[in-house]
Amino acid sequence: MEKANDMITNNNRVCWHALHTAPKSEHKLMQRLNAAGYTTFCPMQAMFVKWKGQAKEVIVPLFSGCLFVAGDASEITSLVSSQKAALLVDREGKSLSIEADKTELSAKFARLLE
What we know:
The protein is an alpha+beta fold. It has one domain: 2-Layer Sandwich (Alpha-Beta Plaits), CATH 3.30.70. Helices cover 31% and strands 32% of the residues. It has helices spanning 4-7, 26-35, 73-81, 102-113, and strands spanning 14-20, 39-41, 44-51, 54-61, 66-70, 86-87, 97-100. The strands form two sheets. Strands 1, 2, 5, 6 and 7 form a five-stranded antiparallel sheet that branches. Strand 3 and strand 4 form a beta hairpin. It is globular and about 50 Å long. 21% of the residues are buried. Mean pLDDT is 83; it is low at 1-10.
């Protein structure tokens, strides 16, 4: 089984698959997938929230309940079903995959959501 770490060499573009999980569960899912040898990515953003009358900075996922995993779709499908997650699919029912490097992944995914 070829792991995503083997697929990323010399900053090549990688095939990323979008996964959906429960909001606030992204970090746990990333840890499990990383422990299984997969490369994951969850773009984060800083937000200010008011808490007890003060503004606090918190770091949250850019896309709530969504993260990306690099690798072969068939391997990922069997893995995510046991992780309380699902592959996002396009209009044709195929797994939503984006060929990109990490720097352009968020922008490409946002364009798909438009």
